[in-house]
Amino acid sequence: MQPQRIKRLVIDGVVDTVDYYLGTRLHALQDTDAEIKRLTEHCDLAGPQRCPLYSNGGSTNILHAFQELINSLKDNPIGVPASLDLGPDLITYSDVIDAVFHALYAPIQDFPPLTQRLLDLSKGNGTAFAISKQVGRRHRGVSPPPQGQPVREDACHVQRHVPGDTRMAIVCTDINATQGMTRDAYEAYIETLRSQSPLVAGIFAHPRMLCVNWNLRPKWRFSGPFVGKLQSPLLAIETARDPVAPIRNAHLFSTRFSPTAVLTLDAEGHCSLSAPSLCMAHYIRQYFQRGLLPAPGTVCEANEKPFLGVTKPADGGKDETELLEELRWVAKHWN
User: pTM value?
Assistant: First the structure.
């Protein structure tokens, strides 16, 4: 709120502030499909031993098969019978889109197992997908037990998802009021999102629907201008293919809050933490310790990629090796 008082700050996963507070969310999906395409390229390079959806004919064929499988579920959802450990379920198109969208946030960790479940679906077997779906539903919003009480399940330690009511309270009071939005206006909004990412437009539009009947408004709300002159340079960092925060937002931020340097990680996932990179770690370290900024246009390489594993091992001795292992751990657990 007082940018002139900031001395060191790194911003990761940059949102277009104006777009966010308007509630339009039209500047978020520009790189989503590019991430999906790049993941199929990694799959092709990894081969059938490491990528369950691999097929001959290159990444184009893999992407086509991926899209065909998902689209087939629109008319032919897959039923899963009940078992001793699993309730009956129906795996739908929406279920798979939701899983794909969330896997795009942390593809190193989440995309390989998702592709195995998708391969099972292509063979008519939805058991693994149903297990993942039902376990994920049970774990959402689980709180730690009261002090002194035994921990009854591992989920008490896991809080990966913001509960729906909490998220609505934050988002719907942040953005411009959406009451009175007509069905035609909402459909036009979804069509605009589909022009950016046909696959995830529907699920991404959902939060705006949730806010239509949200009548609470904050007593005070800052509505701009979202610009400022900084005392010291900031550092904005981002992956080149983020599912909800395209790199262009970081560059836009740099024009609104000056001076700001932009550092790009040539990787997939939401925020730079989703892909371990010693290069990024060193630039961030020198920024905080010495105030040094990367040169304009600097792009870092990731040391690990989805399906492929570590493609660039640490080569700077024990400290570098340990740092890379820490970054890999963060990439697998942070989101």
Answer: 0.88
Q: What is the mean pLDDT of residues 59-72?
A: 95
Q: Residue 194: what pLDDT? A: 95
Secondary structure element (H or E) that encloses residue 79, with its range: strand 78-80
DSSP state of 76: -
**Alpha-carbon Rg for the chain in angstroms:** 21
pLDDT at 143 over 90: no
Nearest by Cα to 193 from 183, 202, 206, 181: 202
pLDDT in tens, 102-132: 999 999 999 999 999 999 999 999 999 999 9
Residue with tokens 């629109």: 74
| Residue 75 neighbours by CB under 8 Å, 6+ apart | none
- In three-state secondary structure terms, 240 is strand
Q: Which of 198, 162, 12, 35 is nearest to 107 (CA)?
A: 35
The average pLDDT across 306-311 equals 95
| Cα 55 from chain centre | 26
The secondary element (H helix, E strand) that includes residue 242 is none
Rounded to an integer, what distance in angstroms lies between the CA atom of residue 177 and that of residue 215?
8
User: Is the per-residue pLDDT at 141 higher than 50?
Assistant: no
**Would you give the DSSP letter of residue 105?**
T
Nearest CA among 244, 248, 267 for reference residue 197:
244
Tokens read off for 303: 């040391």
Is the distance from CB of 335 to CB of 270 less than 8 angstroms? Answer: yes
